[in-house]
Every structure is written in structure tokens, then in C-alpha cells.
UniProtKB/TrEMBL annotation:
<dbReference type="InterPro" id="IPR039556">
    <property type="entry name" value="ICL/PEPM"/>
</dbReference>
<dbReference type="InterPro" id="IPR040442">
    <property type="entry name" value="Pyrv_kinase-like_dom_sf"/>
</dbReference>
<dbReference type="GO" id="GO:0016833">
    <property type="term" value="F:oxo-acid-lyase activity"/>
</dbReference>
<dbReference type="Pfam" id="PF13714">
    <property type="entry name" value="PEP_mutase"/>
</dbReference>
<dbReference type="InterPro" id="IPR015813">
    <property type="entry name" value="Pyrv/PenolPyrv_kinase-like_dom"/>
</dbReference>
<protein>
    <submittedName>
        <fullName>Carboxyvinyl-carboxyphosphonate phosphorylmutase</fullName>
    </submittedName>
</protein>
């Protein structure tokens, strides 16, 4: 994957749909399906890697290592959640350099106070707009290539209202962010207003059960969104499937008769790259 792939795709028409990836299995499955981009979800990655809530508990080291793992697995460009930049301006500089070196195509930085919280949960507070503008300027200066995209997210809608969120989105665009992410609008009308106000590529964050309505692709395109991310879809689906098969094992003591609900073992082994191992063993048999 080259960095300019996502930037070049943004220059073309049509909505970019990016499913959430959160571990090596989800990354391999999504990467094989032909998406234009993938989204490394902070919520899912923290839950999968640490078994903890996405509440500022994961460190920069935790997350940049996940970025590197996913980028090594995937050919598809990865948009990576960078939380608040993990601290002050120097931390933002370090995070941007680290994410770019690790192989992400874009880093998302938000204006929440530390410790941050998932964008569709209550209790979020934001830093002063001027502080976030400085973070964005530092992020733009820190990257080595302009093909590595800076995504500026504001969580102001929930606590300070849509007008303040729009004011911040416009300021972040002027500061040099490549993509603007106004988190958790609460109606299609609010989404339309966001798209009509901010003259930059925009992200729609579609979280099943969250604050923002789940709209069809055609509607999102008509409104003016360029990227739709689906951060929770994968781990919510996986949670349902795991719970179902684990319940079967608990109640029946067997998976007999449930094979059709499971990914075929041979196909899964090939997905994980075992063919290379098998070929290597053949070539190097004693």
C-alpha cells in the first residue's frame, strides 16, 4: 500500500466506505474484500487488545503497535484513530510521525479533553478550540509526506451544540486538516447542515445504536459526505456470533450440527497465510 492511494481515491467521485478493523482476523478479512479504505477503530482495538473500554486507557505505544501490525497485514489504506494525539503538542508531533512511519494512510485526532471517551458515549468534554487548532498545525508540520492525511475531529456537538461544532470544523479546515470529522450529529438535517457548511472532505461515523442515524449510501453521497466509517459493525457482529457458538458449546457440549454457522477451517487457515507455511515446509523438508 502506498500513502497516496487514499488521497488519490478522495479526488475521485463516490463515497468511500471503510469498515472497522480491530484485530488481525478482522483486518485480514476486510483487506481481502476490495474496500477503498479500512478504519482502525479505537473502541474495537482497545477492547480487542486490552479488554478495556475506549476511555483513554490505551497508550500511544499500545495503539501505534496496532497500526504497524494492521499496516503489515493489509494492502488497503488504513485510517487510524489517534485519539487526542496522546497529550500536548509534542505528543501530537510524535504520534503523527509514528503513525506515518507505521504505515497508516491517515491519522484521526480529536478535540476531547484527556482522558477521552468513545464519541457515542456520554460525558465527553472538549478542549478550547484554539488549543486544537495548534494541534492540527503541529500535525500538518510533523508529517513527512502530504499524502499522509490529517483528520480533525470535533466532539463539540454533544456538549456545546451544533453551531460550536461547525465553528470548530471550519477552523480546523483553515488550520490545514485534510478531512473534517464532526462527531455524532443527531439527525439527517444536522448532517446536511454540516455538509453545506464545511468545504472539506467530510466523514460520517455510522455506529449502530449510536447517536447518528444510519443512512443509505445514496443519501450520504447526496448530502455530501466523502467517507463513511463503520467502526462498530465488525466487533458487534463478531460478538453476536461468538456468543451464539459459545452458548451452543455450553448448553450442548458440542458444535455438531452447527458447522454451517462457522467459517470453514481450511479456508480460514488459508486466509491467515498458512499456505505460505505449507509451501515453505515442502521446499525445506529434510
Amino acid at each position: 500500500m502506498t500513502l497516496n492511494t487514499l488521497k488519490a481515491r478522495l479526488a475521485q467521485p463516490g463515497l468511500i466506505c471503510a469498515p472497522g478493523i480491530f484485530d488481525g482476523i478482522s483486518a485480514r478479512i476486510a483487506d481481502a474484500m476490495g474496500f477503498d479504505a479500512l478504519y482502525m477503530t479505537g473502541y474495537g482495538t482497545v477492547a480487542s487488545h486490552l479488554g478495556l473500554p475506549d476511555a483513554g486507557l490505551a497508550t500511544y505505544s499500545d495503539m501505534v503497535n496496532r497500526v504497524a501490525t494492521f499496516a503489515d497485514i493489509c494492502r488497503t489504506p488504513i485510517i487510524a484513530d489517534g485519539d487526542t494525539g496522546y497529550g500536548g503538542l509534542l505528543n501530537v508531533d510524535h504520534a503523527v510521525r509514528g503513525y506515518e512511519k507505521a504505515g497508516a494512510a491517515a491519522i484521526q485526532i480529536e478535540d476531547q479533553e484527556f482522558p477521552k471517551k468513545c464519541g457515542h458515549t456520554p460525558g465527553r468534554r472538549v478542549i478550547p478550540m484554539e488549543d486544537m487548532v495548534r494541534k492540527i498545525k503541529v500535525a500538518v508540520e510533523a508529517r513527512e509526506s502530504s499524502d499522509f492525511l490529517i483528520i480533525a475531529r470535533t466532539d463539540a456537538r454533544t456538549t456545546l451544540g451544533l453551531d460550536e461544532a461547525l465553528r470548530r470544523g471550519e477552523a480546523f479546515a483553515r488550520a490545514g486538516a485534510d478531512i473534517i470529522f464532526v462527531e455524532s450529529p443527531e439527525s439527517e438535517e444536522e448532517m446536511a447542515r454540516i455538509c453545506a457548511t464545511i468545504d472539506k472532505p467530510l466523514i460520517a461515523n455510522l455506529v449502530e445504536g449510536g447517536r447518528t442515524p444510519i443512512l443509505p449510501r445514496a443519501t450520504l453521497e447526496e448530502l455530501g459526505y466523502r467517507i463513511a466509517i463503520f467502526p462498530g459493525s465488525g466487533f458487534l457482529a463478531a460478538g453476536t456470533a461468538l456468543q451464539a457458538i459459545y452458548r451452543t458449546i455450553l448448553e450442548e457440549g458440542s458444535t455438531a450440527g452447527h458447522e454451517e454457522s462457522l467459517y470453514p477451517f481450511d479456508a480460514f487457515s488459508r486466509l491467515m497465510g498458512f499456505e505460505r507455511v505449507w509451501d515453505f515446509d515442502k521446499r525445506n523438508a529434510a
